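Problem statement: downstream parser choked on a complex file, so we are re-checking the raw output for the alpha-D-glucopyranose run. The parser issue turned out to be on our end (a line-ending mismatch), but while we're here, posting the original submission so the record is complete.
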Amino acid sequence: MRRGAACLRGRDRDLLRRRRKRARALQAGRRGLGQENRQQRPGISTPNSTTERLALYQQLLAAGSSDIDVYQIDVIWPGTLKSHFIDLKPYSKGAEAAHFRSIVENNTVDGKLLAMPWYTDVGLLFYRKDLLAKYGAKPPESWAELSDIAARIQDGERKAGNDKMWGFVWQGRAYEGLTCNAVEWIDSYKGALLDASGHVTVNSPAAKQALTTASGWVGNISPEGVLNYQEEEARGVFQSGNAVFMRNWPYAWALANAADSPVSGKVGITALPKGGADGKHSATLGGWQLAVAKYSKHPELAADLVMYLTTEAEQKRRAIAGAYNPTIPSLYKDPEVLAANPFFADLGPVLAGAVARPSRVTGVNYPKVSNAFWDAVHAVLAKSTPPEEALAELDRNLKRMLR
Ligand code: GLC
C-alpha cells in the first residue's frame, strides 16, 4: 500500500500520534491490514500558521498529489478548496446530523459534504485570576476597562520586580489570525467587513473606532512584538506568567493548566470585551474539519478514517485531553468533558453568537479579501497608516476585488 497521510499542525502532533495508533488499530481490525502496512500511514506536520498551511495545501492539491489522503481544513476553506475534495455523504451514513448544523452547512458546498467537522473554535479572553484578585479587579466588560486594568497590573507588577510583565497579548502578525482578532474588535463595536449579501461595509465609524483602540494598545499594554505574534507566541508569554490578559482559542486552556505550566490553576476565561457601553461581546468562529482529497488512491479508507476521527467518542477524548471544542452539542453536557473544561458550560451563547468571517459569501475570493484586510489592519497597528486612510483604501480594494 502507498504512503498515506493526514495534514496536521505542530501542536496537534502528540494527540495525533495516539489517535493514529487507535485509528490504525481500528482500520486494521476492520480491513485486516498487516502490521507492515499499518506502519505506512504517517501524519505530515504542517506550519502552525493557517495562512502558510493554505499555501502548502494549494500547492499539493493543484498538483493533484496523491501523497495526502486526509486534509485538516480551516472553517474558512470549503469554498476556496471545493474542487479538490470528495463528497463524504456516501460514507457518512447521516452521521453529520449529530454535529452543529451551522458547521455542517458551512462544510456543504453545491450540495456536497466536503468535510466533517472535527473541532470548533471561538476567540476567548484568558486572564490571570490571581492577579485580578490581588489588584481588586473584575474581568473587564469593555475594551476601555481591559485597558485600565491591564495598565494598572502591568505597572504594579513591574514595580514589584517583574519587568517582563505585559497587560494584553493577542495575534497581531499579518496573517489569518489577525483577521480573526480584528473581526472581533470591529464586531464588538457593531461594525463588519462585509454585510450578509457580500457588500463591503468596512469603512465605518465602528471599524475606525475599533482599529484606533487596538493600535493604542501596541507599545502600551501590548509589546511591540505583538505585531509578529501568532497564537503560540501569545500563549508563550501568557503561560510563562508575563501577561495579565490573552486573546486565544480554547486549546490554550489545556496547555496553560498542564502540570508544568507556571500559571496552572491561575487562569480564568471570559467573553472578549464589548466595544463600549453600546457594543457587544464578540468571538470569531474558527475551527477545523477533515476532508478527503479527490486525488487519494484510497478514498474509502480515508473517508472511514475521517468518520472515525469525528465520532463522539473521539471528540470527547480530544476535548478532555486537549480542550478541543466538540462539534457535537451533546458533549457540552458530558460530566467528564465539563470537569476537564469548566468554561465549556458557559460557551453555549458564545458559540451561538460567534461571528463568521465572510468566507461563504466571498467563496474562492476569501483568501484575497482576508489578506487585504489583515494588511490594512497591520499598517494601522504599526502606525504606518492612519485608520481612516487604511479603511478608505481597503474599501476601494475590496470593492474592486469583489466586482
Ligand atoms: C484557529 C481557528 C481557525 C483560524 C486560525 C487563525 O486555528 O480555528 O479557524 O483561521 O486560528 O490563526
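For whoever reads this later: Residues 1-5, 12-19, 22-39 have pLDDT under 50 and may be disordered.
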